[in-house]
């Protein structure tokens, strides 16, 4: 089988985490003997370079699709890749498209993303098969687009257990991050951007610590458009001594973060949170997840077992859950950690790797 992988997000040396799950799916296909060519974009930082990159990307998709034959065109991010594929489909009707939808493909985060929705709908209607990251997101696709094409679930490349696993000796994690090993930490890994809930995390920390001061500190790993507002809020709330901010880190360093924290805080407010792979990666390192009861998080967090839920945007409830976790007896924290590990084990690359090739070989409509 020969597949053309198409994506406007793909890792580079400068941005190794950008679209890394797309690269992970490519590796799975190749490991199963499938030939994979790719037309992908890497992250650009200027508007002009983005414009030229998209123009070249779109032209390459259409030209390659017309002049070469593939069993499937496998596309990640319907919203930003639909246009050239729809053009190609008109010119070459027998082309088979497998569309992997996630995130803002189905639930736009800002008004400017709404303009892509008609194309997303058209692409899904013309796709031979559709892949979604979670049962939750599959339901969204079915409800919103009324598609009759088969929809499969594949959890975004899975968790790499070679990288994300609990350390027997946590001292390495503290050392690599330059953290004090005598202090306990909770943490969050996310872009500092709209819909990520960073502001509710900071406000909840301030409220929790005001009501019940602790020796805990709180990590935040990430960068983004709202970083200036993020830093200003830390000052306004007087959290300079409580919040430790790291910029965007490569996946290899995230393993240190997940091993340094007792629990992972996932304050997203995005209905388009199609899976929440970072939460599962944290669980794979033994960190329970204190997460918003929203999106794909509802498919793997079991309240009181492997994590705690709170209502999205509810600062009071998040603050209460932070306090609740901190006050848990040590044996209960260990039980939650073990439950988190068991949950993550269902999403490891080894476990799910067989699912993706099966989707492409499966000719039975579901």
Automatic annotation (TrEMBL):
This is Glycosyl transferase, group 1. It comes from Priestia megaterium (strain ATCC 12872 / QMB1551). Its EC number is 2.4.-.-. Keywords: Glycosyltransferase, Transferase. Pfam families: Glyco_transf_4, Glycos_transf_1. The keyword Transferase applies. GO terms for molecular function: glycosyltransferase activity. Residues 174-340 form the Glycosyl transferase family domain. Residues 65-157 form the Glycosyltransferase subfamily 4-like N-terminal domain. Coiled coil: none annotated. InterPro entries: Glyco_trans_1 (IPR001296), Glyco_trans_4-like_N (IPR028098), Glycosyltransferase_grp1 (IPR050194).
